[in-house]
Amino acid sequence: MARNPSWILRSHPSAMPTTENWVLEDRPVPEASDGELLVKTLWLSVDPYMRGRISPAKNYAAGFKLGDLMLGGGVGEVISSGSSDFSPGQIVMSDYFGWQPFTVVPASSAKLVTTTDAPMQAALSYLGMPGLTAYFSLLKTARPKPGETVLISAASGAVGQIAGQIARIKGFDPVAMASTDEKLEWCKELGYRAGVNHHASADLVADVAAACPNGVDVFIDTAGPIHDAAMLNLNTFGRVVVVGTIALADRFDQPDIGLRHLRRTLITRARIEGFLLDDHASEYEIALADLLSWYKQGLLQTREDVAEGIESVPRAFLRMLRGENFGKQLIQL
Asked: Fewer Cβ atoms within 10 A, N terminus or C terminus of the chain?
């Protein structure tokens, strides 16, 4: 029988997670029942939303219990099928891949992946959840007007690198927030006009003001001190879209303590709105068509940070939480 090393949640972290929160167990290769697919994992994705799922705190997605197999986005080859919609040999993507080499996913969650126009792992990046998040958070929730300044947090990451390029394509004025000068140089290659290294900054409010001389019209927010700097530079009728809270990865179960901006919100008549991708499911196909078209025209570039092997999955996840990745964090099996 083939080995199937599988990552199991051993403990819930109270601060920044460590590799000790998981244990690698040698489990048997599962079998697909009716309505399921047995898939050989080729690519796994680790994403910020997973931090909430390993916390016992209430979240918008069901959390993992101790002893649960870790699940996330993945791409793989169908080995056996319990569904008439899929056949062995096909490549599929699902958000229910286990952190293991062979996994069973619900056929209802699987989508066929074609590799004629883009590499298969694009289904986990610009043609998947990160690309869709960038598209809808910017174009449907924030709704910038041409020429407006869009400040984007985690600008070189999986979502940010796509959001900045969509802003450029649509004639907005994108400004990057990133953690290193190297990442900011990449953002400028993508079309960001300016950027701020928030790790090196001694005065975030002043640095954001310098990078956004006309103020901030839209802020794509991931929480933390960057939020305060954006709010203090927000224009009248500015829009803040909270796409995640990765800045709180080391204190996820604690309140995000900082300045209170109620007066600022009143004066600017700002709109602050939380974003969940599932709210836009009815429009996925339209967005994916746009993203693929831009990619085929050479208007979208992406950078991948690839770890190798099932043993590397927790370390890759932690690198992403700490902002050590450069581009979309993936694991190739």
From this structure: N
